[in-house]
Amino acid sequence: MTDMHDDPLGPLDPDFATQFRRDDRRPPCQLYLISPADVGDAFPERLKRALGAGPVAAFQFRVKGVDQHKAAALAEPLQRICADHEVAFIVNDSVSLAKRLGADGVHLGQDDGDPREARAALGPSAQIGVTCHDSRHLAMNAGEAGADYVAFGAFYPTTTKPVHHRPEPVILSWWSTLFEVPCVAIGGITPENAQPLIAAGADFLAVSSAVWGGDEEAAMRAFASRLK
Fold first, then answer.
1. Residue among 140, 119, 139, 121 nearest 131 (CA)
2. Could you give the C-alpha distances from 33 to 141, 154, 178, in angstroms and in order?
3. pTM recorded for the entire structure
4. How far apart are CA 113 and CA 106, in angstroms?
5. For residue 216, which of 15, 47, 99 has the smallest C-alpha distance?
């Protein structure tokens, strides 16, 4: 299923995985929480419970199919909760919504614009992330364009969105060996399958349905125990 052969850099040397040792100078792997599709009604209380149950570095507001006015109204209470817990509030896809909210940053898909333009709009302190699928080439381009992190995935089957790219964990090892820019692993990650990605060098684990699909507090505690 992987499209690694589409990467202009060609296949990765499999020895990267066997020789890789996580650099102790990098901060320990952290959790990057992504919202479910429905963030209305009881969700703010669920977010409070989740953030109270275990450490989170960032929360991504990812809502589709609503206009910006409605999106902003949904985002504002969640943004306050994140601020209360000192969690970065990142907007998915929309630089204009991130700017309107004064969000901590924006996450860009490959079709969502250039990191340089996002930086010009949001300022020097904004956190700008870029989806790079299974491509080292795209990740290097993102890093050169000033991205603050690159995201690889989906590593495991996921129901959150259609999967067209399935990298191997070794891409995390390659990236963190050569570059200081943090890398995010995404796609079907659970407390049970997270360890290979942590060992491979992921700086962040992006998770959604593993937390929101059940008891968010229990899930957060399970992730926290894996990340210690």
1. 139
2. 25, 15, 26
3. 0.94
4. 11
5. 47
Q: Describe the crossing of helices 170-178 and 136-144 by its angle, rounded to 10 degrees.
A: 30
Task: Return the amino acid letter for 92.
Answer: N
pLDDT at 225: 97
The beta-strand segments (E) located in 17-80 are 30-34, 58-61
Q: Taking residues 82-107, what's their average pLDDT?
A: 98
**What is the pLDDT, as a whole number, of residue 130?**
98
* 59, 90 contact by CB (below 8 A): yes
Pairing between strand 204-207 and 149-153?
unpaired
**What is d(CA 113, CA 115) in angstroms, rounded to the nearest whole number?**
7
| Secondary structure of 81-106 in HEC code, one letter for each residue | HHHHCCCEEEEECCHHHHHHHCCCEE
How far apart are alpha carbons 163 and 154 in whole angstroms? 7
Burial, 190: exposed, middle or buried (Cβ in 10 Å; 0-12, 13-18, 19+)?
middle
Residue 34 and residue 163: Cα distance in Å, rounded?
17
pLDDT single digits (tens) 10-23? 788 877 778 898 88
Cis status of the peptide bond prior to 154, with omega within 30 of 0: yes
Query: Could you report how far apart the first and last alpha carbons of the chain are, in Å?
Result: 32
Length reported for the chain: 228
Torsion sign across C-alpha atoms 89, 95, 96, 102: positive
